[in-house]
Structure formats: C-alpha cells, structure tokens
Design a protein that fits this description.
This protein is mainly beta and 79 residues long. It has one helix and six strands; from the N terminus they run βαβββββ. The chain is elongated, with a radius of gyration of 14 Å.
C-alpha cells in the first residue's frame, strides 16, 4: 500500500524518509528527528513516529513573547 498523499503521520507507525519528505512538502507540519539534520540524507531509512502534538509554544523574536502555534508536530526516531 502506498503512503503517498498522506495527510497525517500516525504514532507507532514506521515511514521511510522519502515518505516523510513528501508529507512535510505537502502539509503544514513540523517534524523533529532524533537523527539531527540527517533526516533526509538516506531516502530509504525508516523512522518511527513516537509522538504527535496538536501544536507547540514558540518564542517570537518580533515581540519577545511565547505564542502557542496550532500546527501539527511529530517526533520521529530512527528505526
């Protein structure tokens, strides 16, 4: 079954880096990886989604305040 055109990542599921790449290209989401900046270095490397969040707090450099952003965020780790 092809996972292309996904609109969400599911915690507990494994995805290849190229699938995650396609997901973030077409979806307004944040992906945090335990693989540092090498998430997309090997398109066939598998990652497991460990957590999903409805949003996150972000510090604004414009006003110095912290703001909650309603934007899906996922944590993935190498399998």
């Amino acid at each position: 079954m092809s996972k292309s055109g996904m609109n969400t990542l599911k915690p507990g599921e494994n995805y290849k880096a190229h699938e995650i790449d396609s997901f973030v290209t077409t979806t307004d989401a944040v992906v945090l990886s335990t693989n540092d900046n090498e998430l997309f270095s090997d398109p066939e490397r598998e990652f497991k989604v460990t957590h999903e969040f409805e949003g996150f707090f972000e510090h604004s450099s414009e006003d110095g305040e912290k703001h909650f952003r309603e934007k899906k965020a996922y944590i993935v780790e190498k399998v």
